[in-house]
């Protein structure tokens, strides 16, 4: 008969009175701790601690990749996937989120951002700006440069100076009066 | 033996038979009464109308207020498709943006091709000299590029 040993095992389990599992000798999060001088259980990393991969990311950010068709295409793909909801496909700051009431981001085609260095654009992607949060953990360093290069393409596309671009004037259709 | 020649008595007391009932009623009092009712109702309605228009100022007499509808998207997917289609059209067409200043737009693929040919200069800002925007700065009213929608799209836009 197997029911009797099973019942006996259940009875033995109920007899356990060891609280070492539920009351462990450890510090809870954000509790006081007499072990350290500052009296806090939460510790900060020691000076000089570096996150894994941070050095490679920093090096990639410091050295812009050369702009070619593949980098621009990568930038376009990342831009349309990540940036379009707020900045819009053309970079005028008229994405769908803005249409729903979110604060309007500045247009890439205003003087302030047409004169901004590409590194500033990369820094904004990395650290955020205003209501835009940081995308450092969402966009790889090389992709940030790719997006910055694509923003340059957007600025050229939406604000091309015809006199400086040979062959462009002939392709623009005449406006009807 | 009773006298059979006397008039017939039809009740126990033996009252004599009364005069015949008048053949018709008097119309004048009835008509006057009806006319009075009609006039009274009409005067009452007019008086109530005057009273409502001149004396009563309670909220019940205020005109019904209309409220703006909630800003909801009834068809968000259709809105997104429409928005992206308009933006993609601007992204892939040639058109004048500001002809007086010689500024036009061209397909971004063409811009990418021209930019790739610049090599290391591709990162350079289109507006020189480059200036790092001061922290907290936002927006600019001096941009020569009008925002989309302020310039009518050319019907001859080509790809």
UniProtKB/TrEMBL annotation, chain A:
Cytochrome c domain ranges (all copies): 70-155
Alphabetized GO MF terms: electron transfer activity; heme binding; metal ion binding
PROSITE patterns: CYTC (PS51007), PROKAR_LIPOPROTEIN (PS51257)
UniProt entry keywords in alphabetical sequence: Heme, Iron, Metal-binding
Superkingdom of the organism of origin: Bacteria
SUPFAM superfamilies from the UniProt entry: Cytochrome c (SSF46626)
InterPro entries: Cyt_c-like_dom, Cyt_c-like_dom_sf
Keyword Oxidoreductase: no
Name of the featured protein: Cytochrome c domain-containing protein
Keyword Metal-binding: yes
Organism: Methylobacterium frigidaeris
From TrEMBL, chain B:
Membrane in keyword set: yes
Keywords (A to Z) from UniProt: Membrane, Transmembrane, Transmembrane helix
Segments passing through the bilayer: 30-51
Positions of the UniProt region annotated as Disordered: 1-20, 126-159
Protein name: Uncharacterized protein
Species this protein is from: Methylobacterium frigidaeris
